[in-house]
Every structure is written in C-alpha cells, then in structure tokens.
C-alpha cells in the first residue's frame, strides 16, 4: 500500500478531526476560514477545494512535502461540505469536511 498524499488538514490552525465538537470550527458568515492541507511525497501536487456540487472553489499547486493554504469566506449561513482533493502523478485522494457557517455570533 502506498503512502497517503494528504497528511493533515487544519482549519484556522486547528487539526481537523471529525470526532471533535464542531463548535470549534464554526464561523460567522463573512468571516474567513483558513484551510491548510499538508501533502506528502515528492514533486508537484495539485490541491483542489470543491463544494458539494463539485464546483471548484480554488485549486493550486504545491511542492511536496509542503502545505497548501487558502482562506475561504462564505457570505450566507448554512452547512457546507467541502471536498479536498489532491493529485500527485497517477494517484489521487480526497477528503470531505463539514463547515458550519452561522448567521451571527453566539452571545454568552
């Protein structure tokens, strides 16, 4: 079995974990979410962020081992599923993330 291309995912400098309380990843509409994707291997890796409809939000190339970083901002509240894809030579890998965007900040 070959090594994984995607080594880690961070949201606002916090390691993404599906079992963690989603409150730590929530942001208010209009507030930026910094997504970092650590990639392994050697050579160029193309990293893409796509929405739930498959539309590319952003894509970029990074030299592996390295980190791809991008800030996303959503204007409207709601739950978003963002798919992170990584292609390296003849291999590809993807992971889904749930991003909660709130209408306003919680008080209290």
Please characterize this protein's 3D structure.
By secondary structure, this protein is mainly β. 0% of the residues lie in helices and 63% in strands. It has strands at 6-11, 14-15, 27-28, 33-50, 56-72, 78-88, 91-102. The N and C termini lie far apart (49 Å). The mean pLDDT is 92.
**Given the structure, what is the number of helices?**
0
Major sheet size, sense and barrel closure: 7 strands, mixed
CATH class descriptor: Mainly Beta
CATH architecture: Sandwich
Radius of gyration: 14 Å
What's the number of extended β-strand segments? 7
Distance between the termini: 49 Å
The H-and-E topology, N to C, reads as: EEEEEEE
Under CATH, the topology can be stated as Immunoglobulin-like
Would you identify the CATH H-level superfamily?
Answer: Macroglobulin (MG2) domain
What would you call the shape?
Answer: elongated
Provide the domain count. Answer: 1
Multimeric organization: single chain
| Poorly predicted ranges | none
**Whole-number mean pLDDT:** 92
Strand content: over 45%
| Helix vs. strand class | mainly beta
- Helicity level, as a percent range? under 10%
